[in-house]
Amino acid sequence: MNAERGGLRTASRLVVKVGSSSLTTPQGMIDGDRVDALVDVLAARRAGGTQIVLVSSGAIAAGLGPLGLPTRPRDLATQQAAASVGQGVLIARYTSSFARYGLRVGQVLLTADDMMRRSHHRNAQRTLDRLLELGIVPVVNENDTVATDEIRFGDNDRLAALVTHLMHADALLLLSDVDALYDGDPRRPGGANRLTDVRGPADLADVELGRSGRVGTGGMVTKVQAARIATGAGVPVVLTAAAHAAQALAGADVGTYFHPDGRHPGTRLLWLAHAATGRGRLHLDHGAVEAVVGRRMSLLPAGVTAVEGDFSAGDPVDLCGPHGDAVARGLVNFDSAEIPGLLGRSTRELAGSLGPEYERELIHRDDIVLLEPDLSGASHV
């Protein structure tokens, strides 16, 4: 056992995410043998006393057979129809597989909105906590029938990272059809090198980005981003193939281990950075960018040059630099209709002309998170 990976072996609460490619046949249908193999590993760990939350893709794939579709549909409406039919098939398959070990499962379907709105966020947390208390294995999936995030971006990776934080889990295991993160495409002549450990962004500097925006092969960008979300919340992550799940959970040196960075941000700020979507945009001048990003100060009306979007007080909005790139996100204190009349004016001036309620910042510094560039060079959440 690798000593540094012992956290997965000893975790008392664990989130495991599995993608469609690890559950399907070459024809794209759900493979019962693969489901059983995964459940065998999870049930063994569950028998040892570990609480497990399974984040599983595969609803669309499970719906192909019942709908008579030979391949995954391209149009969104048919994808959502396949998800609607397939989600029941998928949960039934997990139900029967876990039942072999006397375990029951509970279906939890979430959308990005459930992770964005605080009341929904708390409700999801209470439900999952109670399921675990009752000895149930929650099976979480994006609600593909009404949400488009997973269908467009795939693999539930970000959702798994957010559920890890939501549930205060001790570790996250990301299961893929690729056995690790590589610094290039291992299928090319000469192959590529496996990254055994990632301790920070510097370790990813030489990782090759594919033309489709993927790291190496296997759609790794979303998985690496999910790992960064989890490790940024102080949680270790292992990325490996589903076939190596047992070894990974035992602390063996398989896959890629993402080391936690020791930070433990509050739930609200993690939600703001990674689950919220900006409802509008505030364009900042250079001075305001320096104040907000460089000195971590509140955003004042005098530093804002333009407003985009229709939003209400309390909504998340993106803060953009002079070149239009999003550098931060915050919870705004005013409606979008109010802000144009405040721009370029000091809070003292506004209080004198409009009343004391306007002697406050547009966004308080405690309600601002900085956005960092993603692996393709653009701002990401």
Automatic annotation (TrEMBL):
PROSITE patterns: GLUTAMATE_5_KINASE, PUA. It is found in: Cytoplasm. GO terms for biological process: L-proline biosynthetic process. ATP binds at residues 17, 176-177, 217-223. It holds the Pfam family PUA. InterPro entries: AceGlu_kinase-like_sf (IPR036393), Asp/Glu/Uridylate_kinase (IPR001048), G5K_ProB (IPR041739), Glu/AcGlu_kinase (IPR001057), Glu_5kinase (IPR011529), Glu_5kinase/COase_Synthase (IPR005715), Glutamate_5-kinase_CS (IPR019797), PUA (IPR002478). Keywords: Amino-acid biosynthesis, ATP-binding, Cytoplasm, Kinase, Nucleotide-binding, Proline biosynthesis, Transferase. Its main location: cytoplasm. Residues 280-359 form the PUA domain. It is an enzyme of class 2 (transferase). Pathway: Amino-acid biosynthesis; L-proline biosynthesis; L-glutamate 5-semialdehyde from L-glutamate: step 1/2. It catalyses: L-glutamate + ATP = L-glutamyl 5-phosphate + ADP. Its EC number is 2.7.2.11. One of its GO terms (cellular component) is cytosol. Belongs to the glutamate 5-kinase family. Catalyzes the transfer of a phosphate group to glutamate to form L-glutamate 5-phosphate. NCBIfam families: proB (TIGR01027). This is Glutamate 5-kinase. It comes from Spongiactinospora rosea. The gene is proB.
